[in-house]
Structure prediction request, 358 residues.
Amino acid sequence: MALRPSNHAFRTGFRQSAINRIAGSPNGDDKLALIPDNFIRGFSVSEVADRIVESIVSISVDDAKTTFAKPGHAAMAALLAVTPGAKSESAYAEMCALLGERYTEDAAWAVDNDKSPADVMAARNVGSDGFRKVLDGGWTAETIKKYGVSIVRALPRDGATVAASGLNAKTLRAWIKVSTGLSIRHIFALAATDVSPETLREHTKGLEMHGDHIVAVARVGVARVQALREFRGSTGVGYSFLWSRIDTPEFADAILSLWSTDQIDKEREGKTVNSDRLRALLDAGITPAQIGDANRAGVPFGDWTPELFATDLWEAGRVHRRARDTKVRACWVENGCRGMLNGLWPWTAETYADLSMR
Prediction:
């Protein structure tokens, strides 16, 4: 007695709609009974499965007996050959044989997407679980051999871009060693700077940086990196801000012209840097040196506008410096005038105007 269509769907792996289509063909229940268990496995929604259904619908029971007497992948290949316009039987059989029964779904995908056996096997040597990603990324057997497995594993989605880039394997390997997770976009940006991969790797060691952060460090120049790290430690500026928002030497210099270790006033806005305000000033043509002038003059960061920098900055900061010193002196008196009077504004009119002090 033939199994009901719903049981066939469970047993063979075909979708219920496919089972209904086969069952409605001449001697459909007899043909359904011949299909091996889990015949379609995990790819019942693929183009290959649809073609196999049409083949089963069109063949006779005797042909079905002959076909399903073959091993699973050979039976599928034979059914594919029945359908007009289908991939060749030999191509599918070869792919199934190469990949093995566990990868029948992958074989169907490779044949449907016109991947050659050579490309498939080269991609599988990179990593069998992700070989589709490698092939979708534009890698071929030729380019995998040319660049090497380590580069393909690092840039699985960028095969076509790598091949068109003109970068050689040695150069790519050097940049990949800087940090895991770099994309070809990041590597293009890094290669456009004057920083070598070896130098950059040394200066970013231990910072757990990736992608855009690495590019930012390369663009500002490694000579500024240590100073920026010290600045972060003294001001509490957030890690992600420091490395993701600083993308030009000018921005790095503007950061460094803010509060140095002996100038931090915790009651002003020295503990955080408003990157949008700083970026707007640089875009308006204000230089890092001018930003340093406003800082040393004592003008609060929240008051900085492009218009401010057209005025006498030392005069603009007078009331703020006086308030700061008044508070420091009051605290000194309240504590019994013990010790030296520390904490007064560190700049005078003379030192402020001394360009060598910038």
